[in-house]
Each structure stands twice: as C-alpha cells, then as structure tokens.
C-alpha cells in the first residue's frame, strides 16, 4: 500500500520536473519563442490597426472586438500547434522511444507538456491583453463573475486544444514537416471560427455552421463575453453569449481529445518498430 501511494504521488512530482525541463528547453530555442509569441501579437497589432469603426448601439470598436478572438487564437497556437510540433520533434529524434523504455510513467511526460503550454498560454494572454489595452483601449473587467468565466473558458480551452495537439502530432511524418502539418488546420480553423472577422456574424452561414463544431469559435465567444460589454451582443450570431453551450462544447472536446490521444498517439516514428 505504501509503495502504491508513493508511485501515485510521484507522478505529479515527475510531471512538474518534466514541465520545468520543457520550459527551459522551450526558452532556449529563441526562434521558437519569437514565433510562438510574435505571430498572434503581430496579427493583432496589424489587423487592429487596419480596421476601424464603432458598432451601432455600443462603444466597442472593431479593433476591441478583435482582441478577445485573438486571445483564443493565441491559446490555440501555444497549445495545439506548439504541442503538435514539439511532440513530433521528440518522436523524430528518439526522445519518445527512450522515455517509453525508461522507468518513468508516461503520464509524467504528458503532464510536463501540459504544464509547459499552460505557462506559455498565460504569458500569451498577458501579452495580447497588454497590446489590446495599450493600442486599442480595451478595459479589464471589474466584475468577479467575468473573471470566473475567463478562468473556466481558459482551462477548458487549454485542455481541449492540448489534447488535440497531442493527437494531431501523429499526423506529421517527421519533425521537419510538423510545423506545416500543424499550422494548416490551425489557420483554417481560425478563419472558419471567425477569428479574423469583425463581427463573427458577418461570416457566411456555411462557415458559421462548420466553425461551430470546433472549440476555437467557442473559446473566442467566451472571451468576448469577458472583455466586451453586453451592448455588443447584437453583433453575435445568436444575440447571446451562450455560456452553457460554450462550456458543453469545450468539455466535449476535452473528452473527445483525450479519446483521440489514447487511440492515435504513437511513441515511434513512421516505419519504426
């Protein structure tokens, strides 16, 4: 009984140590750091500067409407894309094969990866919020309820996108191709989820229907409900924040992503035995 308890207790400790190693390795790769943080930040700064106008019946500008959506896109980038690329690289250079044969629980490896993207996602949110506040006049909410909404949307979004990134890492045949393999679906989802449209209701109906099947659209909508006033609701598709549906869809993707991981994850590269 004592041994079992110690084994169970060691998984979080090993996962924490693994997470620290992953963070150190990530921040040593300066090009990866710059690309991960710069892409959403540069897109927000450029797109926000190019669009203008105030929505009728509200004081919200087009640039302010864009900020929460880009926060969702930034989180998807640091979780889905970053995890897919890093795990594909670990598989390609033999790291996964060595870890599989080591006396370390596999769950500790995945816990370390999730801790890494969680920290990076928090930093990404802070950066994008700073740009939104300094460049476009976005105000931080003062109501505790809005921050509570931010918390569960953030956690469900990070979890679901992380699982999907882990599962999608198996699509890349090598570490070199992983960037292209992960970024293509990410960019497609960003477009059909209304990330680059202000407002999202301007999207064509077929794209709205397809985008509603995926978590990115609901993450963006959840964050808009946090950082934008309710006077902007006429610009939403259903004129409602739909918090219940947002939580349900994100939770379903967390469960579905986990099942995909269990079914598709590979410890070895293509052609290896």
TrEMBL record:
Subcellular location per the Swiss-Prot or TrEMBL entry: Cell membrane; Membrane
Pfam families listed in its UniProt record: ABC2_membrane (PF01061)
PROSITE patterns: ABC_TM2
Lipid bilayer topology: Multi-pass membrane protein
Domain of life, source organism: Bacteria
Keyword Chloroplast: no
Domain ABC transmembrane type-2 residue range list: 31-268
Keywords: Antibiotic resistance, Cell membrane, Membrane, Transmembrane, Transmembrane helix, Transport
Cross-referenced InterPro entries: ABC2_TM, ABC2_TM_bact-type, ABC_2_transport, Nod_factor_ABC_transporter
Transmembrane annotation, as ranges: 32-55, 67-89, 110-138, 150-172, 184-203, 247-265
Cross-referenced PANTHER family: NODULATION PROTEIN J
Record family assignment: Belongs to the ABC-2 integral membrane protein family.
Name listed for the protein in its UniProt record: Transport permease protein
Source organism of this protein record: Plantactinospora sonchi
